[in-house]
């Protein structure tokens, strides 16, 4: 297998080249190229239906579940093409590239069971004590431990929306991923919960590479280091967040970030 | 000048129509309630007698060579004169013929025997088939408190019998438990397996598996509407004639009823699986669970309350079935409860059918009482289904 690693920016964790995705006849992602740096927050912004969620789901092959979705091109993570390698274990890929969804989606089980599920799947703990440690550590990293430590065995549905979403973060963290993909994680939350999640993202970026899809441009501005602007399936402009928001070079980007449409 | 009109002519008409509709619906509901009350009252009125049993206390003074002779001579003592042959026959007819073989009399004392169905009917005031001798003896004994009605344990612990006074439902209940239990053991895993395959495992558009699934879907929906007797014919042709399984066995009944309820279980399980949000599958897959792990650890447990509720309703349907069981010979005269699923057996609805068909008047109240028992069992099952749904249903 030929690996084109030399041309990569050495700090790029994910290197997307020439990515094309079709839903049936609909060409949803057109020739996307993007480098995602390690320990950075990369924001994907753009109007509805522009393909940013599709792009995000391509990074851990969640699009595989969609019946008529066809993906072409390459996504290298740590130099391995997750699409071309014949022996890519998709389950291990999803363990390493975790995902948090738009609406909090805890399992209808206890808080403890929600976190312990992933480590159990991947046999990460041999003893109950190790599992307890993973649960505590994950909840602590997600800034949730203090709030739930006395009710670990209560149903997760009893938590508030913001707490549920942080529980979903903790659940993803529990399987020790490298990358976290966040698909509009704050869109169903109130401003205070959103604030808590944003603080969490800024903390997590020390240890994880984060890609976030957001509709909230202020949020992208606040938390991201790099931003890519999508329009009708194409990446119109990418660069540092500062540049995209303050000095966009493309007309469409300028119109979008200044709120003229979208 | 234009102004708003709050009382247009149209409004009055609309209101009258709405009122009329409301009353029509109320009437329909009231009619249903009245019909149900009539149904239950009639059954209760006719069946309540079967829950009590008439007994005779006889005093034994001398022990003869056999229990039969002992009982008979004790019965002859009920009249003061020396009874002639005709009177003797009348007196022997006061107790159930079954008494001779069920009681062991070894010493003097008072023994309690089950009265003959004619005495039972006379004491309960249903009808009078007693001759004058019997009638005067029974009247005297009732006054002395030696003929009396007690709780009818025989109805619960006995099996079918030629004598209505000692016939009971236990044999049919055991047969029902075997039949339905095995039917569920067979239909539940198969049904849930079908539903899981159809809902949880993807089939690409235009693929053979997709066509297979769609074909099966049409068939399963169709099977749910097939008359139940057709399943009986299937059981008779395939299981008994072709496979050579024994007739009247609850095992054969179980497979027949299992096939009967399979479509119901598949359909309810598919509905339950569909109510599990896609977000749960995404969450599990996103953590690196395989499709099988997601299905087993998350989707099926979340759908289980719905699946079980549907299964209980399917069981309730199977318990009430009689037609297919008639075809496979489970319409047997069961004197002893079956001890294995291969023994000849019958079920409660078939027992009702048998009793309803019997000429003896004593079986009429048994029929109604057995129907009441069946109805109570069905109501209990449906309540269980509602309770399970309320208790374990997940509000997404």
Task: Give a written overview of the molecule.
The complex is a heterodimer of chains A (262) and B (396). In chain A, a hairpin with a 2-residue loop joins strand 1 and strand 2. In chain A, 34% of the residues lie in helices and 26% in strands. The N terminus of chain A is likely disordered. With 262 residues, chain A is α/β, with parallel strands linked by helices. Chain B is mainly alpha-helical and 396 residues long. In chain B, helix 1 crosses helix 16. Chain B is extended and about 100 Å long. The model of chain B has no long low-confidence stretch (mean pLDDT 91). At the A-B interface, helix 2, helix 3 and helix 6 of A face helix 12 and helix 13 of B.
Task: Explain briefly what this protein structure is.
The complex is a heterodimer of chains A (262) and B (396). Chain A has 262 residues and is α/β, with parallel strands linked by helices.
| Relative strand content of chain A | 25-35%
Biggest interface: A-B, 27 and 23 residues
Let me know the average pLDDT of chain B: 91
Form type of chain A:
globular
- The unreliable regions of chain A are 1-8
Notable characteristics:
heterodimer; A: 262 residues; alpha/beta; 6-stranded mixed beta sheet; 4-stranded antiparallel beta sheet; 10 helices; 10 strands; 26% strand; globular; B: 396 residues; mainly alpha; 3-stranded antiparallel beta sheet; 3 strands; 5% strand; extended
